[in-house]
Design a protein that fits this description.
The protein is α/β, with parallel strands linked by helices. It contains six helices and eleven strands. The N and C termini lie close together (10 Å).
Length: 197
């Protein structure tokens, strides 16, 4: 991907590889305009500006921090925010085997509808165009499937910052999205710092 980073004194082009396995830190990304994206490795796709940014939400503080970064991007590049929430079928499966209170697909879908509506309302309060999307299934799969179907320009997603054994055993939705998304992914850590992959 080629991005234009506009500084106070000059603009410069930065080449960013999206094929790296490990995300890298790119603090200047907030000031960047995506010019070219070669995410499918078959050729360059011209992008004068992004027009669709997916911001997945699970109602958590991490999703809220990511939404603020996503809103900043959307304002800078006049993009539509797609507030995406997934009714996580993992929750219904866990409750069925004694992992928590009983939850039906309807329960988790209702929660997802609330999260998506809240995120879209926050985007609209900032003067952004927003749409709500609610899906049911496994979150990482639903997020990447929606990004592919929409041909989205970017996903901005929060991360809980898991580390060590918990991350290796459980993985995370964010990790899976970063590894499998067909579009660029910006991850936002709990401290508000960002990574691009």
């Amino acid at each position: 991907m080629l991005i234009e980073a506009s500084g106070r004194r000059s603009s410069r082009l930065i080449a960013v590889s999206l094929t790296l396995i490990d995300p890298f830190r790119l603090e200047a990304l907030r000031e960047c305009k995506i010019l070219y994206d070669r995410s499918d490795n078959t050729g360059y796709r011209r992008q004068s500006m992004a027009n669709s940014i997916i911001i997945p939400t699970d109602g958590s503080e991490y999703a809220e921090k990511a939404s603020k970064v996503g809103f900043d991007f959307a304002e800078k590049i006049d993009a539509t925010v797609h507030a995406l929430a997934v009714g996580d079928v993992n929750q219904t499966e866990r409750s069925a085997v004694g992992g928590g209170p009983p939850q039906t697909v309807d329960d988790v879908t209702e929660l997802a509808e609330t999260w998506a509506a809240d995120l879209a309302a926050a985007a609209e309060e900032r003067g952004l165009e927003a749409t709500t999307v609610v899906r049911s299934g496994h979150p990482a799969e639903e997020i990447t499937d929606y990004a592919a179907a929409l041909d989205a320009d970017m996903i901005v997603i929060g991360t809980a910052g898991r580390s060590g054994l918990e991350r290796r055993v459980l993985g995370s939705v964010t990790d899976k999205v970063v590894r499998t998304a067909p579009v660029p992914v910006v991850t936002v850590r709990s401290d508000g710092s960002i990574d691009a992959a």
